[in-house]
Write a structure and sequence with these properties.
675 residues, alpha+beta, Rossmann fold, 8-stranded mixed beta sheet, 4-stranded antiparallel beta sheet, 11 helices, 38 strands, 35% strand, 6-blade_b-propeller_TolB-like, Peptidase_S9_cat, AB_hydrolase_fold, signal
Amino acid sequence: MTETASIFHDLTQFVAEPRFSGLALSPAGDRRIAVRTELNHKKNAYMSALWELPCGEGDTRKPRRLTRGLEGEALAGITNEGDILFTAKRETGDDDSEQRLFLLPNGGGEARVVAKRHSGFAGLSIARESGHIALVSGVHPHAKDAEDDARIAKEREDKKFTGILHTGYPVRAWDHDLGPTVSQIFVAEPLDAEDDDAQLELRQLTHFAPYERVSGAQISSDGSSVYATLTRTVRGTDAFSTVIKVDVESGKVTTLAEEDGAHHMLEAVSPAGDYLLLAREQAVSRTVPLKLEYSIYDLGTHERTATATNFSDWIGDATITPCGKSLYFTADHEGRGGIFKLDTEEGTVELLTEGKFHYSHLALDERSGTLVALQDAIDQPPLPVRLDPDTREVSRIDAPLEAPEVPGDLTEFSIEAEDGTSVRSWLCVPSGANAENPAPLLLWIHGGPFGSWNSWSWRWNPWTAVARGYAVLLPDPAISTGYGQQMIDRGWDQLGGSPFDDIMRATKAALERPEIDETKKAALGGSYGGYMANWVAGHTGDFFDCIVTHASLWNIDQFRHTTDAGQHWGAHLDDAHVAEYNPADSVGEIVAPMLVIHGDKDYRVPIGEGLRLWYELLEASGKSPEENPHRFLYFPNENHWVLTPNNAFTWYSTVLAFVDRHVKGMETDYPDLLG
């Protein structure tokens, strides 16, 4: 095995490694702004800073850091003049906690506050012709006016009043409570470039009710309309997404796409203002799988035309050319990601990229017609690149980071599923592993369940285990994305059926490889991967030496109605589905030692799942504390993901120590700060 030191061998270095987390282009295409994330000076939190990268051929400037706030900055947008808008926590001398929107002038100078609001700023969009700005911010629904809204927010803060009176569902999202404010669309005139003290005069455009939730607001090029997705609760807990148009002058809201029993979502607005790209999703049930279909909505005729009919995966980032004839987008693709081109006149899709890479933060340089994005892979963290759509050449953009060398080799293989489907996997193997020196195997099961092992991960990074001598298997079983609708369909109605069978077939195939030690193995998974880890624990006896289950679904009868995504899971997991595929029903069959991990702020898979799993696991084992092989790693302040650096260090250290003890028989120490 390799002895070369790297950030993967030292977890303190690994969690401290700087990384890119965003990339944006100015409307004119003459500024490339990257978001770089790193540790703060106390080394107890991550902070982000904005960097300017060279822009196009002939630009010999070196990357330069633009912002240096002690708590970091979040990029909000870039104006038509190239000024950067960002949010940040900075000392301004004001005695309030309102979030501030800063402007950093293109021509140089200090950043200054141009707007502030108690509920912050989200979804900022800038009209490429008129320069008007649209954004989303929360408003108390019973406030009489803007002053009363600010008063309510201030009094709630001063009096530490936290009560929220709900009238409908949902009440939580991911890791935060919904309410008491309701998201509304605001608009503002472009700032006067000659006035260094100009402020954005925000005007509230909408007055949505508490049962209406707006997202994805995009302003038209001429600034006359704002388009958005509006999700409305219609009865009980049933809510459906619609696409709306808001007239900027009058505030009139017009529904463009609406259907009882289906969701319609806004994906992109054409620069010419003549059409929208929409997505449609039929409401799911156990017999109706999740499926996305796309259409072009003609803003002149109000007709929808199906498009991308030769494409059955899901569109990610999307950007439309000025003429509107081409639309570029990202999507999962066969264990990778890709950048695709949609011919909007023909409705056909073609793949522009190749190789093992995945792409995000896609943007179009309208001057040259080139695309920029962050490119990553299983063995490469995100780095900025440019793509020429005509030649399909991808080239690296000069940036203040390099990819670290991984301590092993990446390969892939496929197996045949029971129904004949080809199921592929990545396999990360330590350098030097061979038949004489085989590596123990860790099976890592991805979450979602609609996802794929196709990109770099700082949270579940296989190379941290490879650096310790493990091979890591990353399979894409049934319900994985990037393999067409049929891959979703074949596992949809059997949460623990064909996905489980695919995973076990891939695992057994990996164990037959000469560089893998078939006698030493463990299974790990988070979220849906945690569900599957629990299912594996109850259905494989002592096949695995141990199981790690993070943020996992345990009793799905309970989970389907307590998750923040209850409308989806309540429909997907009907009573028959629960009766057939509930991991909790097999607690008495669990033999392998389990490490249970959960964060208290997890609203996607609520903490009750972890608490119930831990209780029932101990109850079923009936062992004394000294004999108990199971462990519970609890994070009071983390959500579905472990995001703070020192807790991430603890997560990796504890997981690897637990695996070492049960797979290798090594008494690796747990982090001493666990007490």
